[in-house]
Amino acid sequence: MTKKEVSPAVIQRLPRYYRYLEDLMDQDVERTSSRMLSEIMNLTASQIRQDLNQFGGFGQQGYGYNVKKLHDEIGKILNIDKENCLIIIGAGNLGKALANYDGFRKRGFRICAIFDKDPGLTGKTIGGLEVLSMDRLEDFIKENNIRIAALCIPKEFARDLTDELIRMGISGIWNFAHLDLDVPDGIQVESVHLSESLMRLSYKVGELYHNGDES
């Protein structure tokens, strides 16, 4: 498959395709179409075809898409056809929630370790993992060829730790700190700002009530 420039909007939709195809597999559905996917995903059939054609299409005229094959192909595109090992930094409430979530492995991710600087937390078990001290971080990253780290720490520590993680060989940062990280080219950051998401929801709910009052 020849790679070409893919828009961020298409990349944003790929995990949704993967998830809905997984649901179809759970229902023993073997074949689908852009029309069927459009009905369950609230996208147009044309948009779905355009998205998938970015990667070669995968469909057959008069047949549609083989659900498992399309699911597997999207998994390859997302680089989750093989297990990805990631570490969590910060064993607070959010770090604990991530460590205890069992859905990551189904999506191709395994949490390999969790670290915290608090000596009162090191040695405790969270999600079946022993919390490790930060002084073991660099050796663990290098010995286990870790590429992805989830940052679950206060924002005042995030920037300096990000620099350290990059120096240690981390190339992907799942950022839960309330801070926009400035990283060099070649380093990927996916930021998750939970409060911003909630505020967007609040705005949308407010708009519904506001429009309702005016009608």
Would you kindly provide a written description of the structure presented here, covering whatever features stand out?
With 215 residues, this protein is an alpha/beta fold. The chain folds into two domains: 70 residues, Orthogonal Bundle (Arc Repressor Mutant, subunit A), CATH 1.10.10; 112 residues, NAD(P)-binding Rossmann-like Domain (Rossmann fold), CATH 3.40.50.720. 46% of the residues lie in helices and 17% in strands. It has eight helices and nine strands. The protein has a seven-stranded mixed beta sheet. β5 and β6 form a beta hairpin. α1 runs antiparallel to α4 and α2 packs across α3. The protein is globular and about 60 Å long. The protein starts with 7 loop residues before the first helix and ends with a helix.
Task: Please name the defining characteristics of this protein.
215 residues; alpha/beta; Arc Repressor Mutant, subunit A; Rossmann fold; 2 domains; seven-stranded mixed β-sheet; two-stranded antiparallel ribbon; 17% strand
